[in-house]
Write a structure and sequence with these properties.
The complex is a heterodimer of chains A (about 300) and B (about 280).
Chain A lengths: L4 H45 L20 H7 L2 H32 L6 H13 L2 H11 L5 H6 L15 H25 L4 H9 L4 H12 L1 H17 L2 H6 L12 H11 L3 H28 L1
Chain B lengths: L1 H34 L20 H9 L2 H32 L5 H11 L4 H15 L6 H5 L6 H12 L3 H9 L4 H12 L1 H17 L2 H6 L8 H12 L7 H21 L1 H14 L1
Helix pairs in contact in B: 1-13, 2-13, 3-7, 3-10, 4-7, 8-9, 10-13, 12-13
The chains are: A mainly alpha (about 300), B mainly alpha (about 280).
Chain lengths: ~300, ~280
């Protein structure tokens, strides 16, 4: 009866200690993985970019002296690297408007009771779930110099052909990625369209607004949050570009006109054995994505 | 009454049909091309004579890229990633949603933060660690490791478990059930459809992944199909007279499982995609 408050809290404290341990036990495998696969490599990447790092045989201890910004100077004075960042800007300028426009139009068209609705949805989603390597195979064939596209164009076919043409290679990659990812963005916009109040369309009807007017004045502003997301995802996709320049244009060709920063990270870091330089490209790439995302946000918020 | 309605739907349907053709045509072309002995780019080859179609390209690519073992490698890679995603994701997601412990907020913050770290920054250090330091090149462990933990899945699982009523768990705890039992016997069965969707979505990532397994596997016997096919494309494309037949056959084999899985479970993909929006 007279058991003091202390006696009551002691088992309570024990229980809460047990609860804490149990909770930590549940999350510790995840945390251990994050430490090994994310946190450590993240720090390692930044460290590497400021040191003279090269590959050695396992367990060989060598010095990796601190070199300050030397790797960054190497990267920034390398015309190929600068070219690759410009290429990503070209990619974004073509890919983003195309993705936003096409997915918004198709999502709006799909947003109604229609025959064959699930067929359309499946059709749009199939490229998104297919491996890039597989669809690159078809595009290689379609856009080869004697390919179907050039056959149909006849005399209008570009010379040199698409994939070996310095001005057309990167735009074609931008179109390829837009085509491949569109299904995902259509679904995103379709979900966003459910949140646009129906009353807005009804009052636009009362005012006698045309379909195009309604699209521009009700739909486009109504799905702005989704558009912001599209811009961010497209920027990250562009920054991650590797498979397409590696396979579709045979290693960023012609003459580096479709090379991406990640392709250069592979070539400099692993093929040519300068992981420190590649790490510096990686750090710059992340900064690039941050800056582009901030600019995007400023632009979409003001509109 | 219905005539004007269909009339208004017609422009929509035309737009959608043009879109569907643009999306599906390359796939049609891929299949047709893979079945032609000598794929022809002539427009007349778009509707080939069914009698002239063969499976010759499939045996041709199989001679250069052992399809079965490459498919098995893709399957092991994908299976390993799914297993890691589910096991670590369920444990962490359940703890974050339904357990009270010190540091929970910090762990949740980590889950959100990790999703912001881009893979391209980690690519080089992971390559150094896994291939050079730990000597895990050309091993399944080396291919799977960077993808075995998926913070997005932890976040998604946490959202699922948060929606379950807390009383359910409290009463099970009073009955003396351990947390692991509660998770496996109560929480997981109640979230089964949502969990299945996550597994299906996880499948696409490793099955289609190219860059990382490409860096880690140099031994053709260890390469997933995406890597083996890509190597075939980049080595042969310039040299062979008409390499497209074999390339397209390989592409069909690589695309097939993902597309089939999607078509079989289409309803699940769609319902969650829309679910968040409709309810939001």
């Amino acid at each position: 009866m007279s058991s003091p408050a202390r006696g009551a809290t002691s088992p309570g404290r024990l229980r809460s200690l047990g609860r804490n341990l149990l909770g930590l036990g549940f999350v510790s495998p995840y945390l251990a993985f994050v430490a090994v696969v994310f946190a450590y490599p993240f720090g390692f990447a930044v460290w590497m970019s400021f040191h003279d790092y090269f590959f050695t045989a396992p367990n060989v201890v060598v010095e990796h002296p601190f070199v300050g910004f030397e790797n960054y100077v190497t990267v920034l004075t390398d015309p190929d690297v600068r070219r690759s960042f410009v290429n990503i800007l070209v990619f974004l300028v073509i890919n983003v408007p195309l993705t936003v426009f096409a997915s918004m139009v198709l999502a709006t068209a799909l947003n109604a009771k229609l025959p064959m609705r699930s067929f359309f949805r499946a059709a749009y989603y199939v490229p998104y779930i297919t491996a890039s390597v597989a669809v690159v195979g078809v595009w290689l064939w379609l856009f080869s110099s004697g390919g179907l596209v050039n056959q149909l164009l006849g005399d209008l076919a570009p010379e040199p052909s698409w994939l070996v043409n310095e001005t057309l290679a990167m735009p074609l990659i931008a179109v390829f990625v837009a085509w491949k990812q569109l299904g995902f963005f259509i679904m995103l916009y379709l979900a966003a369209l459910q949140n646009v109040p129906k009353e807005l369309y009804e009052s636009a009807d009362v005012d006698g607004a045309s379909t195009v007017r309604k699209f521009l004045s009700v739909t486009v502003p109504g799905v702005r949050p989704a558009t912001t997301l599209v811009l961010i995802v497209a920027t990250i996709t562009g920054a991650n570009l590797f498979t397409e320049p590696y396979l579709l244009t045979g290693g960023g060709g012609p003459d580096g006109s479709s090379a991406s920063p990640v392709l250069l990270m592979y070539q400099r870091g692993i093929e040519q054995g300068s992981p420190d330089v590649a790490a510096a490209i990686g750090v710059l790439l992340v900064l690039f994505v941050l800056v582009v995302s901030l600019i995007n946000r400023k632009l979409t918020e003001r509109g | 009454m219905s005539a004007p309605k269909t009339g208004r739907k017609l422009p929509r349907l035309i737009v959608l049909l043009i879109g569907a053709c643009a999306f599906l045509f390359p796939f049609y072309y891929m299949v047709v091309g893979s079945l032609q002995p000598e794929p022809s780019s002539d427009p007349s080859a778009l509707l080939p004579n069914p009698a002239g179609l063969t499976l010759g390209n499939y045996t041709a690519i199989n001679d250069r890229v052992p399809l079965l073992s490459a498919l098995a490698n893709s399957g092991i890679f994908t299976g390993g990633v799914i297993a890691g995603t589910v096991v670590f994701g369920l444990l962490a997601g359940y703890a974050l949603a339904q357990m009270r412990f010190k540091g929970r907020g910090l762990v949740f913050g980590t889950v959100l933060l990790v999703q912001l770290v881009p893979f391209q920054l980690l690519m080089i250090p992971l390559y150094v660690m896994i291939v050079r330091t730990y000597g895990l090149a050309d091993t399944y462990l080396g291919i799977i490791l960077p993808f075995a933990v998926n913070s997005t899945a932890v976040f998604v699982f946490r959202q699922f478990f948060l929606q379950l009523p807390r009383e359910l768990f409290e009463s099970a705890r009073i009955d003396g059930a351990g947390e692991l039992t509660i998770m496996l016997r109560i929480a997981v069965p109640l979230c089964k459809p949502a969990l299945l969707t996550t597994v299906l979505l996880t499948f696409i990532g490793p099955w289609n992944e190219f860059l990382w397994p490409f860096l880690v596997t140099k031994d053709p016997d260890m390469q997933p199909l995406a890597v083996a096919l890509a190597n075939y494309i980049s080595n042969v494309a310039g040299r062979a007279a008409n390499p497209f037949g074999a390339i397209l056959a390989g592409a069909c084999v690589l695309a097939g499982p993902a597309v089939a899985l999607y078509l079989a479970f289409q309803r699940r993909f769609v319902s969650t995609d829309l679910g968040s929006g409709v309810k939001g």
